[in-house]
Write a structure and sequence with these properties.
With 103 residues, the chain is an alpha/beta fold. Helices cover 36% and strands 26% of the residues. The chain has 4 helices and 5 strands; from the N terminus they run E-H-E-H-E-H-E-E-H. A hairpin with a 2-residue loop joins strand 4 (75-80) and strand 5.
Length: 103
């Protein structure tokens, strides 16, 4: 499954109403650590169709980032059944990110 671009307009449908666990990567194009995490997030999206993976560009979606108190990036937030279940900041391995979703 490919990565979904998450915006304020589609957040409710793509994340809150999703029947799958959701992983969201809050990122920005100018962020070096974000560029390190992005290929890992993309791989997870391709390798794990049971998980919906989305990305939020904090520059374009500042209100959405503020809604989840994203002060630093990359921030990864996991959701299940419309509820935030886990959150982490910074660069992590694929295994650590998968554990974030599974917890």
């Amino acid at each position: 499954m490919s990565v979904v671009t998450i915006t304020s307009e589609n957040f409710e449908v793509e994340v809150l109403q999703s029947d799958k666990p959701v992983l969201i990567d809050f990122w920005a194009a100018w962020c070096g650590p974000c560029r390190m995490v992005s290929p890992i997030v993309d791989e997870l999206a391709e390798e794990h169709p049971e998980i919906k993976v989305g990305k939020v560009d904090v520059d374009a979606q500042g209100a959405l980032a503020a809604q989840f108190n994203v002060m630093s990036i990359p921030t990864l937030i996991a959701f299940k059944n419309g509820k935030k279940t886990n959150q982490t900041l910074g660069v992590h391995s694929k295994e650590e990110i998968l554990a974030l979703i599974g917890d």
